[in-house]
Automatic annotation (TrEMBL):
Domain Nucleotidyl transferase residue range list: 33-147
GO cellular component: eukaryotic translation initiation factor 2B complex
GO molecular function: guanyl-nucleotide exchange factor activity; translation initiation factor activity; translation initiation factor binding
Species of the source: Strombidium inclinatum
InterPro entries in the cross-refs: eIF2B_epsilon, NTP_transferase_dom, Nucleotide-diphossugar_trans
Protein name: Nucleotidyl transferase domain-containing protein
Residue stretches spanning the membrane: none
């Protein structure tokens, strides 16, 4: 069981790092390839299910506990995780994967996150990843920055009255891509960012 004590250093925080993988794709953009019997997170990419790449990415970043939530195909995902034997690897530290159900009427990522909050399984800062994310990014520089920003914000929050205290900080990671990159799909324009020089 993970300790609920607040980490005093980044190194302590990293040793308790959790990840939440939302296996469902609430805005399914590949309806021809996916359905209730074959979830997008288990769609093969070079003959390997997408979820395997997600778990390998998290193991590479030394995540200690992975929580996978899904509103459908629970047993299929559990069976996949069990057959891969991720928890039996000799990683040199305690590691586990938990697969939990969420309600079948969950219609969005927000619905899923509210249910996870009610489960009380997330103990501190965590990585949030979609079940079909493909990346090999090292996230520790961003995590370290997040940790120190949070420390500074905590100092400011502690000076406020109880009614004004809000201790939620989110750090999002993006990959820079030129406008004419073939990796950009013109149909997927859900988000635009304007950044200052910092």
């Amino acid at each position: 069981k993970m300790s609920n004590e607040i980490a005093k250093t980044y190194e302590e925080a990293a040793k308790k790092l959790q990840a939440l993988v939302v296996a469902d794709n609430f805005d399914n953009k590949m309806p021809i390839l996916t359905n209730d019997k074959w979830p997008q997170c288990l769609q093969p990419l070079v003959n390997v299910p997408a979820l395997h790449y997600v778990i390998e990415f998290l193991i590479m970043n030394e995540v200690r506990e992975i929580i996978i939530v899904t509103k459908s195909n629970l047993e299929m995902i559990k069976d996949f995780v069990k057959k891969q034997g991720y928890s039996q690897r000799g990683l040199g530290y305690k590691f586990k994967i938990i697969v939990r159900p969420i309600e079948s009427d969950s219609a969005s990522l927000g619905d899923a996150l509210r249910q996870v909050a009610d489960m009380d399984v997330i103990k501190d800062d965590f990585l949030l990843v979609r079940g079909d994310t493909i990346t090999n990014m090292n996230v520790h520089a961003a995590l370290k920055m997040h940790y120190f920003v949070k420390q500074e914000e905590d100092k400011k929050v502690n000076q406020l009255s109880e009614s004004r205290k809000i201790k939620t900080i989110m750090t999002k990671l993006f990959v820079k891509m030129p406008p004419n990159s073939p990796r950009r799909d013109p149909a997927f324009t859900d988000l635009s960012l304007l950044l200052d020089e910092q």
